[in-house]
Design a protein that fits this description.
This protein has helices at 51-55, 130-143, 161-170, 182-191, 205-212, 226-232, 263-272, 289-301, 319-327, and strands spanning 5-11, 24-30, 39-47, 76-83, 93-96, 103-106, 112-114, 150-154, 174-179, 196-199, 217-221, 236-244, 276-279, 309-312, 334-338. By secondary structure, the protein is of the alpha/beta class. It comes from Haematobacter genomosp. 1.
């Protein structure tokens, strides 16, 4: 190992609204040395995900925020370059949570070994990782789609939404995806096999969505919020289930939206239609992970689940703009940055 410095991206300041490159700062520190029982990891790939925006805020949430001056957190694929842990050898590829940096230490407890011969290692950050498991656990545990029902999913070309719709189809339901732009909608229909895909940027979005759901909506997998929710809400059937996974349209909001208070109308419909709305974090369903790995690997092998990765070159320097682009919907597929 010839390198002597570790480069990392730390949170320089908390954003007011949309993040900017100025909210991050590159730092150099000596590469740490592993102690007995530890391994030194070199990060190869970094996953970028919408939840990271929440970690930049000091607002109370389901997880502690990243402190100003601390390394931004994130899932990674890394290579063991020095090992003082008998369970790992130099050259092992592992799934880790090393964050936005080139090198990290681990005691091995938080690592999962990867076999590059079984699947591309980047899939452990997407379809065979946290996003895929989020789709699997949220849809099957909360959504519980039944044959013949209509499942609608927002951000349908993304890492979570693309899997939600394909699992819905496997379970015998109709899958209607919502995505931004003609290319993404074509991908959702033609490559992923959804029954319909609606462009949320279309001026007549709500009308097109209603046409695609003539029997209403039985399951709505929420990733976005905002006007997408406004279009879906009137179509919800009695006993509809709404797993709330994300609200990316609202993450950069700096205040309460203008307009009338719509909460009374929402609660009236929750009551009159017996709606189930449940937010969730994938780690709540950790006991389902063995079944997920088995099912998902089989579905991919059989060609029933397809996926797309958006891999950005350029190392750590490319991360801030890639992350900002993710929040703006510029990525196409699971966003991963090649670090080294």
């Amino acid at each position: 190992m010839s390198d002597t410095l570790n480069h990392s991206l730390v949170l320089a300041s908390r954003p007011d609204g949309s993040p900017t490159p100025a909210n991050f700062r590159m730092e150099e520190t000596p590469i740490p040395l592993p102690r007995e029982g530890e391994v030194l990891l070199r990060v190869r790939y970094l996953s970028l995900d919408p939840y990271m925006r929440g970690r930049m805020s000091a607002a109370r949430s389901y997880a502690a925020p990243v402190e100003v001056g601390a390394v931004m957190e994130g899932g990674t694929v890394a290579e063991v370059v020095v090992s003082r842990n008998p369970d790992y050898r130099e050259g092992d590829m592992v799934l880790s949570h090393s964050g936005w940096q080139e090198y990290a230490l681990s005691d091995g407890a938080d690592l999962r070994k990867l076999d590059p011969d079984e699947a591309p290692v980047t899939t452990s950050l997407g379809v065979l990782g946290m996003p895929g498991f989020t789709a699997y656990s949220g849809l099957l545990t909360i959504g519980q789609p039944k044959p013949g029902e209509t499942v609608v999913v927002a951000a349908a070309s993304g890492a979570v939404g693309s899997v939600v719709g394909q699992i819905a189809r496997i379970k015998g339901a109709r899958a209607v995806g919502i995505a931004g732009g003609a290319d993404k909608c074509a991908f959702v229909r033609e490559e992923l096999g959804f029954d319909a895909a609606i462009d949320h940027r279309a001026p007549d979005f709500a009308e097109r969505l209603a046409e695609a759901c003539p029997n209403g909506v039985d399951v709505y997998f929420e990733n976005v919020g905002g006007k997408v929710w406004d279009g879906v809400f009137p179509l919800l059937n009695t006993f509809a289930r709404i797993p709330v996974c994300g609200l990316i349209a609202q993450y950069n909001a700096v205040g309460v939206p203008e307009g009338p208070d719509r909460l009374p109308g929402l609660m009236r419909q929750v009551l009159s239609k017996s709606l189930l709305i449940r937010g969730f974090i994938q780690r709540e369903f950790v006991d389902q992970r063995p079944a997920f790995y088995l099912d998902m690997a089989g579905w991919i092998r059989e060609g029933r689940i397809r996926y797309r990765e958006d891999i950005v070159e350029g190392g750590l320097a490319a991360v801030p703009e890639a992350f900002i682009g993710l929040l703006e919907g510029r990525n196409f597929g699971k966003l991963v940055v090649k670090i080294s």
